[in-house]
Design a protein that fits this description.
Blueprint lengths: L1 H16 L22 E5 L25 E2 L12 E7 L6 E9 L6 E5 L3 E2 L4 E2 L3 E2 L2 E4 L5 E5 L17 E9 L11 E9 L3
Antiparallel strand pairs: 1-3, 2-11, 3-11, 4-10, 4-12, 5-9, 5-11, 6-7, 6-11, 8-10
Length: 197
């Protein structure tokens, strides 16, 4: 061990003391370019945490007419889950808006409510600073703005996939009164992410 260390020290010393032993030095500089794509998209969230139970279809088979409001299957009050998660991504640096509307079939829109609470900005790992009204709201028949991106949401694209987007969680409840247990009912819910107020 001592011999190897001694040889190494001698070689390094010889190199520093005899600069004429170096070969000619050449420098090469590489240049190039890259494109940055604009991102403006919305998708159903299917990753972790798994507290978002559904994506494109939410089942309500527990329509107990003795209750005023019922939650989706596998849900109960205060369970910490959401029915769906929407991941809104943008790097445009502009305020974007999230809108919602519902179209029921065979029942009245007043019999459906959506729950929406403060979204989570995954890039910064904190609650979004956007503008919204939290809590249970009636489902509107035409597109209604429910969220305006905050300053941290204008560019929410982190370097890792797990650090991208503003995650919005939604839950829904239905008033089963005046609904026939023998019938099937549907309600189409449309979300829109837009730069227009």
């Amino acid at each position: 061990m001592k011999k190897i260390l001694l040889v190494t020290i001698l070689l390094l010393t010889a190199i520093f003391l005899n600069p004429s032993s170096f070969a000619e030095t050449r420098t090469v500089i590489a240049t190039g370019g890259f494109d940055v794509s604009n991102v403006f998209m919305m998708e159903f969230y299917t990753g972790e945490p798994s507290k978002y139970l559904y994506t494109t279809q939410i089942s309500f088979t527990n329509m107990d007419p003795t209750k005023t409001w019922v939650q989706a299957d596998n849900r109960f009050q205060g369970d910490g889950n959401n029915d769906i998660g929407l991941l809104c991504k943008s790097n445009l640096g502009e305020t974007w808006y999230l809108k919602i509307q519902g179209s029921p079939s065979g029942f009245f829109l007043e019999q459906v409510k959506y729950g929406f609470w403060r979204p989570w900005n995954r890039k910064y790992g904190q609650a979004s600073n956007g503008d919204l009204t939290e809590g249970w709201q009636p489902l509107p028949a035409s597109p209604a703005r429910i969220f305006a991106a905050g300053a941290n949401d204008l560019n929410n694209m982190g370097t890792e996939t797990s650090q991208q987007g503003t995650l919005c969680g939604f839950s829904f409840v239905i008033n089963p009164s005046q609904l026939d247990a023998n019938n099937n009912y549907t309600c189409q819910i449309q979300f829109t992410m837009t730069l227009s107020v």
